[in-house]
Specification:
The chain is an alpha/beta fold and 367 residues long. It contains 14 helices and 15 strands. The protein folds into 2 domains: 200 residues, Rossmann fold, CATH 3.40.50; 132 residues, Rossmann fold (3-Layer(aba) Sandwich). The strands form 4 sheets. A 7-stranded mixed sheet has the order 3-2-1-4-5-12-13, sandwiched between helices. It has a 4-stranded parallel sheet with strand order 7-8-6-11, sandwiched between helices. A two-stranded antiparallel sheet has the order 9-10. It starts with a strand and ends in a 5-residue tail after the last strand.
Length: 367
């Protein structure tokens, strides 16, 4: 039996996506498994996320060449070692209330002959996948988000690579901070979940960590920094999630407006903190926003391995007709969970368990 399946990546890019695609294709096209499965797969990649399924004209060759690509062993052979997504991505919301394209996506999937669609995405992209599943589309989800805020899985592709990026960049900043006796405020990603700041700060030895799950008091931040200077410390590193905010204030925005999923564009809280520190203490402060640097670079060994495990598992789920579910890592084992369960809530930092709200650090850091 011949079966055509599609794969796309949607939302923010990150390291590990290409590894998942590589191993999905290798598993799907493994000739040794055809007799066992009774299925011969053909895999096509959808370009630029949901936009590809909206814009493609399945009956026109030029449109097919623009928005889809055949994925063979030769095509994806080296993909697993590269960051980003070779298929491209966009943040389009097909269920935008002002321009709902969900029926068009289902129609195009039917015309393309897809009998399964693998969606590599985070909470927003997988929420689209789940809605399409409820409308009849056969979907499988692979979790990827550097924020690691998807519930029902212990890991999401891209987190470890982003964490390593933060750690390495702070290592570099520490050198210049010490040379000039400066305070550096480093802003990393993390809209609702502070895992990147918490674990990145822990790994790099940041002196103060500020996360979205607990509003900080600016006076306490300056007090802690003043205490460090009086104790003879030459420099300090403050690591803050983009979604963290001072108590009693609204989140600080990079610019006005919202994306297709109704999210404000966050950014700039690090600059606010740097200005407040300088005004209060008169110390020399520098502000660095890592922004999309965290998404770039080659995937770490862990993300490559998890991409492999998730990609292979997605094919197994298609074979078992385990649609409407997401690949997950649970207690070290690859499993599958209902998309509905994965989207019920966000995976946020348990402040009482992991965060010292008095000194703005993880509990196992020296106070």
């Amino acid at each position: 039996m011949k079966t055509k399946i599609g794969v796309l990546s949607a939302g923010g890019d990150c390291a590990g996506i290409n590894s998942a695609i590589h191993w999905l294709v290798y598993s799907a096209l493994d000739k040794d498994l055809v007799p066992l499965r009774g299925i011969m797969f053909k895999v096509i990649g959808i370009l630029d996320g949901w936009r590809g399924l909206i814009e493609v004209k399945p009956d026109k060759k030029a449109s097919l060449a623009r928005w889809t690509m055949g994925l063979t062993l030769d095509v994806v052979r080296t993909w697993d070692r590269y960051g980003g997504t070779r298929l491209g991505t966009t943040r389009i919301n097909p269920f935008d209330p002002e321009d709902d394209r969900s029926d068009l996506i289902i129609e195009n999937c039917t015309k393309l002959g897809l009998e399964g669609l693998v969606v590599i995405g985070g909470p927003n992209s997988l929420s689209v996948a789940y809605k399409l599943y409820k409308k009849g589309l056969k979907v499988i989800g692979i979790p990827k988000t550097i924020d690691r805020d998807l519930a029902a899985t212990d890991y999401t592709l891209g987190f470890d690579s982003a964490l390593n990026c933060i750690t390495q960049d702070i290592d570099r900043l520490r050198i210049t901070a010490g040379s000039h006796s400066r305070i550096f405020v480093v802003e990393c990603m993390g809209r609702h979940a502070g895992w990147l700041a918490l674990e990145g700060g822990e790994a790099s030895g940041a002196d103060i960590i500020l996360i979205p799950e607990h509003d900080f008091v600016m006076e306490r931040v300056t007090e802690l920094l003043s205490m460090r200077r009086k104790a003879g410390e030459r420099y300090s590193i403050v690591l803050v999630s983009e979604g963290a905010k001072p108590r009693g204030m609204e989140p600080i925005l990079e610019r006005r407006g919202k994306d297709g999923f109704g999210h404000y564009y966050l950014g700039g809280v690090g600059g606010f903190i740097a200005e407040e520190i300088q005004k209060s203490l008169g110390m020399e402060v520098r502000y660095v926003a890592l922004r999309h640097l965290q998404r770039g670079g080659s995937p770490t060994a862990y993300d490559r391995r998890m991409g492999r495990k998730f990609g292979v598992a997605a094919v197994d789920m298609i074979v078992g007709e385990d649609f409407g579910r997401m690949v997950a890592l649970k207690q070290g084992q690859v499993a599958s969970v209902p998309l509905k369960k994965a989207l019920e809530k966000l995976n946020l930092v348990d402040v009482e368990k992991y965060y010292n709200t008095k000194n703005y650090k993880t509990f196992d850091q020296i106070v």
